[in-house]
Amino acid sequence: MDAPTEPGFTASALERQNRRESNARTYPRRIPLVLQSAQGIHVTDTDGRVYIDCLAGAGALALGHNHPVVVEAVQRALAANVPWQTLDLMTPLKDRFVQDLLESLPASFADQARVQFCGPSGADAIEAALKLVKTATGRRGVLY
Question: Are residues 31 and 75 in the same domain?
């Protein structure tokens, strides 16, 4: 879904980003790109230049951008009108995912495994890891 870009679009879009977005963002200031499309490990900017994406969506795109299997699964879910954000509530899709995940693990591990769903910020993952350490060690404090 490439939107057409006029000459000078990249510079004006970056200027708008600089004006509108928080100073908390860091790396975009050092990478002056406006990305238009992506496939696999490649991203293409609005000037048509192709780059290898070494960021991989901050680790969220282990299979690359727009992997056909992922795209097909998302399209199937969209067509089924599944709820997308249910926090910790159960859905049939979540139930199947957990079942498939546990079945992919060695049985001796899967029998004792518990799944923790974390939010996208990383803070939930750190909190869960700290709780796991405390539970596993029986200690109340953690030095970090």
Answer: yes
Whether residues 109 and 76 fall in one domain: no
Query: How many C-beta atoms lie closer than 10 Å to residue 125's C-beta?
Result: 14
How many helices (DSSP H) and strands (DSSP E) are in the chain?
A: 6, 3
Residue 75 lies in a domain: yes
Can you read off the two tokens belonging to residue 144?
């970090």
38 contacts 66 by C-beta, under 8 angstroms = yes
Round to whole Å and give the CA distance between 11 and 13: 6
Same domain, 74 and 97: no
The C-alpha atoms of residue 35 and residue 25 are separated, in whole angstroms, by 17
Q: Give the global pTM.
A: 0.65
* Range 52-69 average pLDDT: 86
Residue 88 lies in a domain: yes
Q: With contact defined as beta carbons under 8 Å apart, do 86 and 80 qualify?
A: no
